[in-house]
Amino acid sequence: MKIPKEVLKVAELLENPPTGGKFQVYLVGGCVRDLLMNLEPKDWDIATNAKPEQIQKIFPDSVYENKFGTVGIKTDSKNEKLKIIEITTFRLEGKYTDKRHPDEIKFAKTIEEDLARRDFTINSMALELINYKLQTTNYKLVDPLNGQKDLKNKIIRTVGEPAERFNEDALRLMRAVRFAVQLDFEIEEKTAKAIKKEAGLLEMIAKERIRDELEKILMTSHPSLGFELLRQTGLLKFIMLELEEGWGVGQNKHHIYNVWEHNLRSLDYAAKKNYALEIRLAALLHDVGKPKTKVGEGPDSTFYNHEVIGAKMAARILDRLHFSKDFTEKVVHLVYCHLFYYNVGEVTESGVRRFLRRVGPENVDDLIKVREADRIGSGVPKAVPYKIRHLLFMIEKVKYDPISPKMLKINGSDVMDILKIEPGPKVGKILSILLEEVIENPEKNTKENLKSRIKELGKLSDNNLEKMAKGAREKKDEFESGIEEKIKEKYYVK
Q: What structural domains does the chain harbor?
């Protein structure tokens, strides 16, 4: 086990401080667990019998801004994980009225007392550091709760009575699932039963804390295991009830998995490809609207407009979990756009331009990733078939063509100057009409042509201009109308 020099330096100063005295020093918590598993710890925590004020005297540049006896020690390390090392005084904890934080903190006398207050046995071990100045540091494992045995047997078990631990801190309900999926462990039977019984306590936890644990589950290598555990333990209904509605909901003859299985398989593909969090969430939620839109049973059942309903449901879920506005909008947009149709030779270049306008060029790569996950989650062998490759070729071909008013060779000021009019709705209507004409034929995007068209459009009555503008606004691109409508109807996925 290799412990960083920054940690050993802090430990050495604690054991033999320049201020005099001598204090006990232990590594505790997750870093001990990770070291025993030959994993690189994500953070380094030290426990000691020194009081916070004594720690601050030893480390004058430290930070102490909490009531839990934890002092942050600044280091000069270039490693982000080692810039701050936390030292916490041995402590006992009182009641947890809010099911998250102890009402009071009392300092303990021994490391064994400190370990007894922790959540799971695998997190309740300590390493006593001995003889820091030697190249090979000696370690003494303190394991009064048999955490090493549970680590060897791959078991998640609470310290003491499970119900008591969960009533102290209800977030531990989710942490048990998160550790199980992160470490590929099983939850011990008594602990699992207590999770099911106490699942409702999760409602008392701040949504931000639930979101943080959910993100950690989503970012594991096999997140579907975590969501299946959340469902089996009864926790999912307090996090994403809408997603759980897909459990056992069959699909039509074009799908071999039910909605729940399909969503989880799509998520696992996104995880396997190491896609970003927003892609994983979009893959998980892309068909969340299917249970509410299902009509009929068996091979000919339909899910008309499930992408529209699903986008609204995804927005509510992510907003409820307090994801950021920009992040939520990105995921919702991907869910809304995931069901697009493209067939070589049927969709024209203008259709591809309208597709880009609707999706946004900046979102195309991510949308294709969601489509890949959708396909693999459906049981097909190829994530990127020839049709998708051809679509990407067409996008590359037209990506510099105008798809937004900003890309027109004229602007609103030009319209007002040519027609000698003041700012108003008429300007926007004319720009909408011009953009639609240019999307259809990019060669028309010249100042000469657009100025000529402005003059022609300016002669129209307000009524006729409104009709043309409305037609431009409502014209659906080929990915949503005509050919696609027939394909959607054929495959029962409208």
A: 5-147 (3.30.460.10), 154-239 (1.10.110.30), 275-401 (no CATH), 411-474 (no CATH)
